[in-house]
Amino acid sequence: MKHTISVLLQNKPGVLSRVTGLFSGRGFNIESLCVAETLETGTSCLTVVSKGDDAIIEQIMKQLHKLIDVIKVTDITEQEYVEREMVLIRVKAESHTRAEVLRIIDIFRGKVVDVSAKSYAIELTGSASKIKAVIDILRPIGIKEIVRTGIIAMPRASKNK
Amino acid sequence: MGKITGSQAIVRCLEEEGVKIIFGYPGGAVLDLFDAIDQSDFVNVLVRHEQGAVHAADGLARVTGEVGVAILTSGPGATNGVTGIATAYMDSIPLVVLTGQVPRPLIGNDAFQEVDIVGITRPCTKHNYLVSELDDLVPVIREAFHIARSGRPGPVLVDLPKDLVASMLTYPEKKPIEMVSYQPTYQPHSRQIAKACKLIMKAKRPVLYVGGGVILSDADKELTELARKLDIPVTMTLMGLGAFPGNHELSMGMLGMHGTYTANMAVSECDLLISVGARFDDRVTGKLDDFATKAKIIHIDIDPTSISKNVKVDIPIVADCKIALTAMNSWFDAESDFSLKEEAARHAPWFKLIREWTEKHPLSYEEAGDIIKPQYVIEQFDRLTGGNAIITTEVGQNQMWAAQFYKFNQPRHFVTSGGLGTMGFGLPAAIGAQMAFPDKTVIDIAGDGSIQMNIQELATAKQYNCPVKIAILNNSYLGMVRQWQELFYDKRYASTTMDVVPDFVDLAKAFGAVGLRATTKDEVIPVIKEALATDNVVVMDFKIEKEEGVYPMVPAGKANTEMLLV
Q1: What pLDDT score does A158 carry?
Q2: Does the annotation count B414 as an active-site position?
Q3: Mutate which of B181, B182, B185, B311 to disrupt the A interface (most A C-beta within 10 Å)?
Q4: Residue B474: strand pairing partners
Q5: B480 an active-site residue?
Q6: How distant is the Cα of B99 from the closest Cα of chain A, in angstroms?
Q7: What class, spelled out in words, does domain B3-170 have in CATH?
Q8: How far apart are CA B33 and CA B73, in angstroms?
Q9: Which of B384, B432, B429, B375 lies closest to B404, judged by CA?
Q10: Do domains B3-170 and B374-543 have the same CATH topology?
Q11: Using beta carbons and an 8 Å cutoff, which residues of B are at the interface with A?
């Protein structure tokens, strides 16, 4: 099963290598990985999506926590959460498909961020399933290039607080 | 306060951390550092190869429990140390390894003797640093010592650019170390302790399975108290030997691939396995699906990643072994329903079975007239040193025979590369141990293969008057690999025959050491006696039975009950 793990870490040189080295060295899988600073200077938040049975995910969590620079590890998948990924897609947009592409983008609340005579570059944000849906629909029209950020995620606020 | 150089600050910092002996090898990038060390009170042991420096620091750390320190130069100096660092990492040994680095402006330029040692050692250190700001120098070294010795210990490497070490700085005052992201758990959860203790009181066939964690946390007394209080038989891993007296009636000896028949049967048949500071290594468990299948498992370990990594456990206890065992001892002392008499009565049929196993298949070997059996050599060392020598080993058959036939009565007396299995470890480790305890008998049990891997350190031993005793069990083979070839490769001895082996007696003399040889059984005791009475480095060359094997043996991937016996 897929798990989205959020890792709060000290923003020290080489810290990303420690995390990725841990995954490759122990044969854990990385589906996507995203990292950027938090509000606090000196700490970063890393979101990694990995696959594995419960025992493997438990090891991943523990091994991550064992890294000296890691402050906190949370398996976000264990609770209610929101996840988002941003994607930039350059899709073919020739005279007979230009209008259709725009309609599709509109349905998914995407934005055109670059236009040429034969293509649109689209910016789109959403959950993994939404991104997949857009890609599936646009593929027959012709996707020329795609760049994804990888998933970031955040637990939902507790309802009774 | 006046300014001092970076290298003087490092020396001061090492003094503050209680370091007295350093193992090192100089070079361009650490000239300043060695210059400062030369003007300090430290003893720097100049080894003959950087691998030897790290193993020697490791040997010192294992016998004293203190942090071992090695200083290496940049580039090849640092890479030569990597095997030593990985060895310490696998066995959780506290080390601080200081490496020189090219000046900061040159880093990344493929400068002379430049290597990214922080990148190289990231997966085999507990943590490592490249110091890039002068203000960080002293705090980083302090942090390195803190990390190396706390929690589950391990090696920490600090890479020191040459220009930074030569710069002037004001020595910062010592402050308590606060690290938000590193706070090892020492205290066990009291509810888990109670759960474990209640389970123990129900067990009919309990076994204590003890690893190196007990030695690292100096918990041998607490462990012995618990085993005796509860009347529970004890088996030890290779790293755990000495945590419980080997000649105690509750000791079943080592378990695993070359463990005793009794220990392996007991673990397979027990209904409760209490693991203390061990990590269910593959050489211990054999085939995982068949390991301790009838048992509930309690696992005490300071490292959460060790728990349920290989074997799912029923009661995990993340804690320092000493604190956890103390808590368990107190729990039983306070428990009114508990009595040793009842425990002993409930365990009586279990001990009867254990005794039967030992009678059926004791640890043994076949005598062969005049031919020297390696096991006999180890038995004589055990007898003639009263089980009280510090024994280091190389890796392979020599290591397993030492583990099986020397009865370690106290902790920190068996120094062996368990996890990584590093040949060439024993001699430098023996030098480290002897530097720490000049008056103790230190014996390196070696093979003719392993000893040649770091034989150059004989010169180090001689230079620093370390009267280590090296016992080579010489069969002209890489014996352990040969044994596997004999058993699993139809006796095709591919690259395991050492047709050219140096004359170790002459070699010893060339180094200024004493060389002795035994070729028949009756020469063994006189050679050992002479060696033990000699205040010099002694190399003993025992010409042993060439194709002797280590038994019992659990073939790789088989269950622990499927042992090949003598």
Answers
A1: 82
A2: no
A3: B181
A4: B543
A5: yes
A6: 18
A7: alpha beta
A8: 10
A9: B375
A10: yes
A11: 118-119, 122-123, 126-127, 130, 132, 147, 179-182, 303-305, 308-309, 312
pLDDT 10s digits, B471-519: 999 999 999 999 999 999 999 999 999 889 999 999 999 999 999 999 9
- Listing DSSP states for chain A in one string gives -EEEEEEEEE--TTHHHHHHHHHHHTT---SEEEEEE-SSTTEEEEEEEEE--HHHHHHHHHHHHHSTTEEEEEEGGGS-EEEEEEEEEEEE--TTTHHHHHHHHHHTT-EEEEE-SSEEEEEEEE-HHHHHHHHHHHTTT-EEEEEE---EEEEPPPTT-
Report how far residue B458's alpha carbon sits from residue B52's, in angstroms, rounded to the nearest whole number: 11
Give me B530's structure tokens.
């002479």
The CB density around residue B345, as the number of other CB atoms within 10 Å, is 11
Average pLDDT over residues B135-141: 97
Tokens of B348: 């009586």
Q: How far apart are CA B397 and CA B118, in angstroms?
A: 34
Place of tokens 């109670």: B194
* B309 is known as an active-site residue: no
**Distance, CA of A44 to CA of A40 (rounded, Å):** 8
What order do you get walking across the sheet with B21-24 strand by strand?
B43-46, B21-24, B68-72, B95-101, B155-161, B127-130
On whether the CB atoms of residues A76 and A26 are closer than 8 A, the answer is no
- What does pLDDT average to over chain B? 97
How many whole angstroms separate alpha carbon B416 and alpha carbon B402? 10
**What's the pLDDT at B67?**
98
What CATH class has A82-155? alpha beta
Residues in a beta bridge with B564: B553
Please, are residues B56 and B72 in contact by the beta-carbon 8 Å criterion?
A: no
Nearest to A69 among B132, B181, B308 (CB): B181
Q: What is the pLDDT of residues A47-102, one digit of tens each?
A: 999 999 999 999 999 999 999 999 999 999 989 999 999 999 999 999 999 999 99
Work out the minimum CA distance from A86 to partner chain B, whole angstroms.
30
Contact (Cβ atoms closer than 8 angstroms) between residue A76 and residue A50 = no
- Domain A2-78: which CATH number of 3.10.450.50, 3.40.50.300, 3.40.47.40, 3.30.70.260: 3.30.70.260
